[in-house]
Amino acid sequence: MKQLLSLLFLFLAFAASAIEPDVIFVNGKIITMDKAGSVVSSVAVKDGNILAVGRDADIRKLAGSSTSIIDLGGKTVVPGLIDAHTHPVETMYLSTDFVNCRYPGVPSVKQALRNMTDSVKTAKKGQWILAACVSASQTKFAEKRMPTLAELDSISPDNPVVVLDGTHLFVVNSKALEVIGVKKGQTKLPHGGGIGLDSDGNPNGTLTDAFADVPSLLTPAQLESFFTSGIPKFWNSYGFTTVMGITQAAVVPVLQKVAASGYKPTIRYSMSVWKAANGEDMPEDLSVFAFPAGSNPDYYRFIGIKAWVDGENDARTGLMCSPYLGHKDTDPKGGHGSQVTSGDQAIRLANIARKNGVICMLHCSGDQAMAIGMTTYENLCSHGKPKTIFRIEHFGVFQMYQNQLDGAVKLHREGLRISVQPTWLTVLVKSDIADMGYERAATGFRFRTMVDAGLEPAGSTDVTGVYLENTNPMKAICATVTRNSDAGKFEPEQALTVMEALKMWTIWAAKSMGEENLKGSIEPGKFADMTVLSEDIFKIAPDRIRDVYTLQTIVGGEVVYISSNIPTVK
């Protein structure tokens, strides 16, 4: 069968007028991820697209006098990896401009305060002090809490301080509250963020989902360098060829400028835009976010808009039907988490997406938020099947009950796609159990159940710069296959096969973006995007997959990242 497919591909290539490939990759174990599950050894590329795949002997016959031939050295090659939900700008920003207070390198509130104090000493008066902690730091720090407003005031009375517990919960000092303009009794920020109050109605220093309400220190020059250098280099090094970049509207003009300049990046940007966290100020006409004429749509695509229905369970702000266990001073009132986007606001966003032909993306962490997201899309589909897909971000990662699974399966037939974050198994399960109890926590991360139901979950990092190591897709694949978590072996019956786990980062990720005709598998006509791995993940022990790394990243047939030289043969 494989030989017949190879001959068919060759016939199609020659029928196209005996086109001479620009480059041919040979001597690989190439996992095509096509519907037949074909494994080939050679790929021919022309003008950045795959011309043919098959056996070395057959594909070499296509070579002309100017065709380069690259020997893959017998290595395993998979389709270019796709990060189906990530925050590239925030990742670069938190990596470069924020004080490092990340656990486990920073094990306590005490050490975090010391690190921030060092920055305050060298800062100009009034300069913002920004600090990054990992998600769920309230359960990881030795003190089992975040720094308090009083502690931040004591180290920085004159400089505004913002401490991130992940990206859904901030603790700030009095100066920051003053600069932002928070008043006594105020519970909401202009762009959808929430404000924590003490028993007297005074701000207690806690802000939820307030990224749009805290001033950015980034300059256009920094942003341009992120898009042309920092982001491509970082994601390429992990084998990624496409990012679904969740992008703040204020940043879009810089990326549009880069695209209009004719700059060809080494990563494909599929952009989803957000404004206010609750989507309230999303314009009815989204043409302002389109890439300008002259931009290369192979590398720059505006495909979606996003809003946050709730916070996130790791920050105890995911909106849940039942309250979190215990109490933290940073908890939203009532202990059920926080609702950021109302049902009406979510429906408005979905209808804007429908009218403009782009994807609607709703962030839903807690079970109550998922119910709101599902109701939104049921409303959307009640007016006829949408022409574009629609998504729930983090579907079932923290919680998923049978009625939600059943609802998702029904909506999937109408166009629902879901994104999940498998790497969180390695860093958040212990916190989930502490915050929700084992019974509720065990309803999360049920990837076997999702796949068996036909949902085809898209893998993504959701990296924001708080957990940089979570960018590693091999760490995620390993966790998905082994179910090894930070709390030990977690619900092992929910494990996937290596092939299923790889689909999450290739063809299923492409489908979640409506781009499966362009990428996600190694087939004629698609982009020549491929990732060369250091070892064969289908043959090594599952526990070893996390140590596999990217040897080469290939975008449009060009090798854009190399960690080990592979000889080129003319």
Characterise the protein shown here.
The protein has an 8-stranded parallel beta sheet. The model is unreliable at 13-17 and 566-570 (pLDDT under 50). α3 packs across α8, α10 crosses α11 and α11 (367-381) runs parallel beside α12. A hairpin with a 5-residue loop joins β13 (194-197) and β14. The chain starts with a helix and ends with a strand. Helices cover 30% and strands 21% of the residues. By secondary structure, the protein is of the alpha/beta class. The protein has 3 domains: 2-79 and 525-569, Urease, subunit C, domain 1 (Roll), CATH 2.30.40.10; 83-87 and 219-512, TIM Barrel, CATH 3.20.20.140; 90-213, Diaminopimelate Epimerase, Chain A, domain 1.
